[in-house]
Amino acid sequence: MKISNNDNLVDYLKTHPDIKSEEFNQALIKLLDNYEKKDKRINKILSQGDTQQKQVLQLNQNLDSLLETFDTYVIASRTDLKGTITYTSKAYEVISGYSKEELIGHSHSILRHPDMPSEIFDDMWESIRAQKIWIGEVKNLKKDGGYYWVKAFITPQYNMDDRHIGYSAIRLDITSQKHAEKLHKEVNNLLNNAGQGFLSFDKSLKIKKSFSKECLNIFKCNDIYEKDISILLFENDIVKKNLFIDGCQRVVSCENKIIKDMFLSLLPKTHNIHNIDISIEYKLLEDDKFMLIITNITEKIILEKELAYQHKIQKMIISAASYKNDFLEVVEEFRDFLSTPPTQKIVFLRELHTFKGIFSQKEMVHLPISIHKLETTLHNIEVENNSFIDLIDNADLENTLEKDIALISTVLGDKFFKETKKLSINKESIIHLELELKNLQDTKNFDLIPQLLERIRKFKYESIFDMLNIYPIAVKQMGQKLNKEIYPMQIVGDETLKVPTFVKPFVNSLIHVFNNCVEHGIEDIETRVVNQKDEIGQVNCSFDKQNDNLIIIISDDGSGIDTNTIRDVAIAKRLTTKEKFEMISEDEKLQYIFLDKFSTSQNVTITSGRGVGMSSVKYELEKLNGKLNIINKIGNGISFEFIISLKRGE
Amino acid sequence: MLNVMIVDDSLILRKTLNSSFTEMGYNVIAQAKSGREAIELYNKNKPDLVTMDITMPVMSGIEALKAIMGKYKDAKIVMITSHGEEQLVMNAISSGAKGYILKPVTKEKLQEAIKKVELLSSK
Fold first, then answer.
1. With bands split at pLDDT 50, 70 and 90, how would you rate the model's confidence at A601?
2. If I label A49, which of A158, A230, A578, B59 is the partner at 20 to 30 A Cα–Cα?
């Protein structure tokens, strides 16, 4: 309603005691003016005589009721020219907590709140001294120490003779408005500093006006108001964008809250935008408005990667510390290998492949990856024997090895790599040897020398059990990687049996046989159940010494090798023809798996599929003039029997 | 006791779901290996609840869902899904699926999904 005359205003104030509007303010100021004028008129009428007394009384009554209303609802005061209070309304008493008596005669400044800068009052005095109206927001001190906010309107006051005698002020209580403003500011501050993007949009996908500052960082733009959220978020990913648009439409067009939530939960939850990894949380507001909470999770992801990396390093260190001798030896062998690499590419690749297997099994962090890269390069590029050495130098495997070793050294200390290998020899043997040497010195019977030499050589022999005992862990790890359940493998054989160290390269190459058993031998659980086999697979390893031969048997209870598969691969790789293959014995057919580049696997992975692994085993075996028997039972597994002569001049 | 039908081409998943349902006190009345088998077995058994894998050979879970929903509009079918199948799941829900479970399936997820199915059907 329009507040235009005094009668209306009285009614209006009675029914709307809490009204606060600019319009109202203006009306109040007008009212005050009228009041002054009426005051003058009454005095004028009074001076004119009794005849008009009735009219005066009527006017007075109106004025009284008007004043009462004014007194109750309007926070009003008057001061003299110096600012000493000369009048206050009841409403003023209520809001300030002071009584009329406590206020009148005192300076207005007793209500001044310490939070208010003095410049505001300087400005006010300057205005009102110049007899201009001053309007401003002021925080006042209450008697009880509390505060209230008012919007004050101060106007000059004149007496009957139009002389400037003081100031008249009315105020609007804006405490709750100030509270709301403060709260709003705090909430905004909170949202802006939460480091998260908050925004909302409706089914048109246009972003609403309020959003947190972080949104601008995330989307890398100055303003996102009214922009299409699906484009801002998923411009670089059409699948996610379509899913997002479709999902939002489905949320809006369905009635059921549970179903709405289901659709909401299917919207894209993570994304990479401007090289920032973000997570997106969706909330449904009233009227099918969506709210998004976008969090920058780049650091979290980096942290997770770092954690995974540290975890890998830890595993490497544990592996190195647990099998120290073995570890040091392999490192030494690899250094030798790198300093004088085999000149034939094929030989180089075989040995490199075995090293990769060993270093993977030893949980080395960087080396297996670098070796794998070099292998890929060497396999893909047809290079001459003499130029492939350059590629090896380029790969800089020494550096990668040193990088891994440095990581181990930081925890285990440099000493770890400096200690030379210790042999354990019992005292009796040394005493015995000493006696025999003394005997030799006395008797000068040089025929005893070969026998003595053999004894000393035997000190360097190592337990074959220990050499093989790195594989139970390898089999377990491989099984876990491929999601196959395998019973813990045990090495079966005489733990005290010691063998010459020349068998080591061969024993090292056996990693490929174990990998093969787990990857290609043991079937996945599903197949095993269908074939009514134990769900958990078995890989076995045993050894024995018979006469001067070392026999190592590795077997699994997997699928065995289907010679038809071998035939197909061999023909595809042009290693044979169908006719030729049918002619040869089962045993000869199986030998194909030991050929270079023979792999039945479709994919090359870091652990297998190159077709180099098994050929490396064969290569090492042949260096020792060893023999291999394979017992292949289709559907029931395979056994590899390696026979190596331990008689060899050193 | 609630009669449940499991539809999944993976034996391991069928086994896992079977033991979970049994432990939770449900009666696994049928197991299907493909969408086509699911339709046949649904007609025969009229189960109270179905868990339906999405990607299966012969006939996908979505097609089977549509066929079953077309004939039995009160069928209660929960989809078993993997990452990257969000769009398919949305289609399934719009076609009447009463929920979905993201693999790997756990007993907690099953319970949660069944609770939602019950909430949806009580309305």
1. low
2. A158
Q: How many domains does chain B have?
A: 1
B102 touching A, CB under 8 A? Answer: no
- State the nearest Cα–Cα gap between B85 and chain A, in angstroms: 9
Angle between helices A324-339 and A298-322 (to 10 degrees): 100
For A283, residues 6+ apart whose C-beta sits below 8 A from its C-beta are A290, A291, A292, A293
State whether A480 and A595 are in the same domain.
yes
B94/A530 touch (CB, cutoff 8 Å), yes or no: no
Q: Whole-model pTM?
A: 0.55
Give one DSSP letter per residue of A173-231, joined into a string. Answer: E-HHHHHHHHHHHHHHHHHHHSSEEEEEE-TT-BBPS---THHHHHHTSS--TT-BHHH
Of the candidates A372, A398, A423, which is a domain's last residue? Answer: A423
Structural domain boundaries enclosing B92: 3-122
CATH number of the domain enclosing B24: 3.40.50.2300
Count of domains in chain A? 4
8 Å CB contact of B11 and A243? no
Which residues 39-78 of chain B have a CB within 8 Å of chain A? none
pLDDT in tens, B46-95: 999 999 999 888 889 999 999 999 999 999 999 999 888 999 999 999 99
- DSSP reduced 3-state for A444: coil
Give A488 to chain B, closest Cα distance, Å.
22
Q: Which residues of A fall below an 8 Å CB-CB distance to B?
A: 239, 242-243, 246-247, 250, 256, 258-259, 262-263, 266-268, 525-526, 529-530
Give the Cα separation of A517 and A614 in Å (integer): 11
Residue A213 has pLDDT above 90, yes or no: no
Residue range A606-630, pLDDT digits in tens: 445 545 678 888 888 998 999 999 8
Whether residues A273 and A323 share a domain: the answer is: no
- Closest CA–CA distance from residue A273 to any residue of chain B (Å): 19
Question: What does the block give as tokens for A250?
Answer: 């489905």
Q: What is the mean pLDDT of residues A58-83?
A: 82
List, for residues A430-448, the tens digit of each pLDDT value. Answer: 888 888 888 888 888 888 8
